[in-house]
Amino acid sequence: MKTLTFDIPEDVDESEVRLSVAYVLFDKGSMSSGEAAQFAGVSKRWFLENAARYGTSIFGESEEDLRSAD
Question: pLDDT of 2-11, one tens digit each?
Answer without folding.
Answer: 888 989 999 9
